Amino acid sequence: MNIAQLLRQVESRRRSGNGIVPDGGGPIHSDPLFRLRSRAQKALFDRLGNRLFDPEMSEEQLRTHVVRELDEILSTEATQLSEDERRNLVESIGSDILGLGPIEPFLSDPTVTEVMVNAADAIFVERGGRLHLTEARFMTSQHVRQVIEKIVAAVGRRIDESSPLVDARLPDGSRVNAVIPPLAVDGPMLTIRKFAETALTAADLVRAGTLTGDAVEFLDTSVRFRQNILISGGTGSGKTTLLNVVSSFIPEHERIVTIEDAVELRLHQRHVIRLEARPPNVEGKGQISIRHLVRNSLRMRPDRIVVGEVRGGEALDMLQAMNTGHEGSLSTLHANTPRDALSRLETMVLMAGLDLPARSIREQIASALDLVVHLNRMGDGSRRVTEIAEVTGMHGDTIGLSTIFAFDHGAGPDSTDRRTDGLTGVLWPTGARPRFLDDLHRHDIGGPDELAKAFPESTVGEGRWS
Question: Which of 3, 51, 62, 291 is 20 to 30 Å from 227 by CA-CA measure?
Fold first, then answer.
């Protein structure tokens, strides 16, 4: 096999994200050509360092600079390469360095939903809710570090030994989390949760089995009726995706303010103001937290406030906004059940630093929230809404919850004919009638006919209390 054939195979594998030479050629890292690529790439990092990520250089200037340096590096190698072979190798290495290296093919693969770099030689991807170890490899841990620095620099963030973890995003909105030593013991780690090229719609979630048509109709009416909705679930259960879909039900004429740690929501209404939190700078100053943004949003004349995720003291400000004329607000939080979501919300209010009695906090939560929508990530990798519960006020010292929709694992096959945790199941109305439906006729909220069928008058007050 000649050099030209090796070059073509290396480039083919680089683009496919694979780390072995096809046709029984053996591992790439045992090939002289692969070792040449490694030496050239390391030498380029040593020569250029942080200039590879200089924001003042245009993409074309940087590529010209990289190609020139690589050409000089390869001219010092004793390997005999023809002019065409060397030019191809320079272009191949340049693309690897100027892009995101071996993970770039996965980012353009629509079947991949998450990319996880545990180490330079351990890259995992998620497909269909399942994790797969790939054969793609970074050259060195330094190469991983350089890719991380390139990503975070593009959005004005930083990562170094004094600030060794960061949340950022790619230009397409994909969520990025990176951790480097000393926190990451085995070297830099990178996790990218991809965004679909086009935002998922309610119809997409129905086809995937996440929701049913009845549940979509109910949530659509709830949003238009300005119910305050909290979406809960575990990590990777699809909370942000569902928040994006539920937010799409907000009427076009309303002014929406979105508040996030890293911008992920993609709302298509015309009147949307997007706010993003800012971490502290190198001197530890200049931080703008989610809580600051929630407070500021109240001065921006919002019709709706959408908080990407509550995880601290901003919970108190969000509840106060819901209780003071900003109905129809939406948010998410991590929790295992709707009841746990309320308990976590209570704990996060205490993180605001105010010495409030527990009953006072619960009364605020009971008054502010209307619905809790809970998702689970099932054993087969699918994401399902497993409960929609209405907050029914205080019952003694406890916040009342009435389950409106519940996922019944023994209800038989659903319309998607998919299996969940080895059992089929369907999201059914429980028969409990949501209290706000009785007020629909007093407002300009049309089309509750289907809901009337799902929640007949005779079922008022027959909900399951938890």
Answer: 291
